[in-house]
Amino acid sequence: MSDQGNGRGTLLRTWKEIGSHLGVSDRTARGWQKDGIPVYREGAGTRATVIAYSHELDAWQEARLRQPQTRRRRLAWTGGGALLLGIAMLAWLGSMRSNGDDAGWDPQHVLFTESGMQIIGRDSDPQLTVPVRDLPLDAYSGLVRDPRDHLRSYLVSDIGDDSEPDVFVARLFHRGANDEVWRVRHDGSIPWKFAFRQPLHRGERVFNSFRTRIVGVVHRDRPLLIVLGTSKDWYPSRLALVDPETGAQIGPEYLHPGYFNDLVLADIDQDGLEELVFAGVNNPGAGPGYPCLGVLEVPFGEAADSAVFPGRKNPVESAYAMFPRFDFLYNRAIRAFEVRVEDSGRIKTKVGFYPDYVEYTLDSELRLIQVHHADSITHAHEDLRAAGVLDHPLSADELHFWKSHVVRYATAPDGNSAEVSRLMSRPPERD
Predict the structure, then answer these.
(1) Cβ neighbours of residue 117 under 8 Å, at least 6 residues apart?
(2) Which of 59, 148, 227, 364 could form a disulfide with 268 if both were Cys (CB 3.0 to 4.6 A apart)?
(3) Using DSSP, how many helices (H) and how many strands (E) does the chain show?
């Protein structure tokens, strides 16, 4: 993924990125050129490259979805409906298993309409409507348009023994209540609902309502559904492994003292098993904390006493690192806001606040390999100095510190502790 396109969304620079955004292969995305997919060319002749903008792709996909079809079928599940204003979940999750029968259960994505939650099949064919009540539009509007679909409001996956794909939906509630993940079967039944019901405590603060998202499914000796909970009140995040068949939590949950901005499942150590890589900020309690990057084995590793949540055991990360804060961001929230994993297993993360960022490339143990920074950071620093916000020019030593000071930890510390501040701060420059 690349830069923002002046209100047109994320700039996508390859067919692979375009296909990933739409939830299909790059070959399928190329095939949609005959259907008018909104793509552009940079350059001329054989050197021309394809680009597209995420919001334009979303609008095109939504219009394509709403085109009249030659056949329609709705399997209604009795109950009351909710008044929803046609919010579409626009990420396509690729080709699911089909039994070859036009009347078969072949879910592809989810659409919210005035009738409730619709499960949509191939050729935009409504297959099931599940009524939902009290779904707040303001909460959903910020979640259904995730450009990379790394965090999902729904997931279609064939995980059972009945050869029938299931739909997993993150249902959102108002602030103060826990969101839930539902498993919706092909007959409209909901065999289980999962939520983070145990509050988290830190000092006198209690965190008891969490926004829930679906990270994905991994396959070990059995499938594992990864569910993310983010506090609706402040900083903690939590991850749970859920049995897709029963909805039961498997093993201890992972607690993190800060927000996750991006999560990716990838085989970073080339052992044939995916790890969970997350980027965000470590900032428990008062203070801005520091940008962070972490790696978790799935299932989660051995648990140890939490450094942040007293009395709790927490799985230990296989790798964890934090990055310096940049003064040119002034009062903007600094975090690791994007993570990508190359085929080689190398991890790239952007730290800062778009478009002013430093991009770090690290190995599977989060050791620094290389780094580059956006040209805009030198201008941003100079603008703040000219405005009297900063009292010094950007020196070569300061820039080198930002680009080289990546501190690895055995496990996630308290990002606002005095010890972390000492380790992460830049020493005074010598005269």
Answers:
(1) 110, 111, 129, 130, 131, 132, 169, 184
(2) 364
(3) 7, 27
User: Rounded distance, CA 29 to CA 20, Å?
Assistant: 9
CA dist 351 and 50 (Å) reads: 27
Mean pLDDT to the nearest integer, 249-278: 93
Residue 12, beta-bridge partner list: 52
Residue with tokens 């190995």: 363
Cβ(164)–Cβ(188) under 8 Å? no
Tell how strand 180-184 and strand 166-171 pair up.
Answer: antiparallel
Q: What is the DSSP letter of 88?
A: B
Residue 184 exposure: Cα atoms within 13 Å on the Cβ side: 27
| Angstrom distances, CA of residue 392 to CA of 212, 254, 288, 381, 395 | 43, 41, 22, 9, 8
- At 71, the amino acid letter reads R
**For position 45, what pLDDT does the model report?**
56
Cα–Cα dist 320/307, whole Å: 14
The pLDDT tens digits of the residues spanning 43-88 come to: 665 567 888 888 888 888 776 655 433 322 221 222 222 222 222 2
Per this entry, what is the length of the chain? 431
What amino acid occupies position 313?
Answer: K
Which pLDDT score is estimated for 8? 74
Picking from 257, 314, 250, the residue whose alpha carbon sits closest to that of residue 288 is 257
Which H or E element spans position 241?
strand 237-242
Using alpha carbons, select from 360, 355, 421, 426 the residue that is nearest to residue 394: 426
Distances (CA, A) of 283 to 37, 235, 298, 346, 421: 42, 7, 24, 26, 11
DSSP assignment of 301-365: --EEE-SSSTT-EEEPPSEEEE----GGGTTSPPEEEEEEE-TTS-EEEEEEETTEEEEEEE-TT
Cα 259 from Cα 288, distance rounded (Å): 12
DSSP label at residue 95 = P
Q: Pick from 185, 187, 147, 188: which is nearest to 53 by CA?
A: 147
Amino acid at 426: R
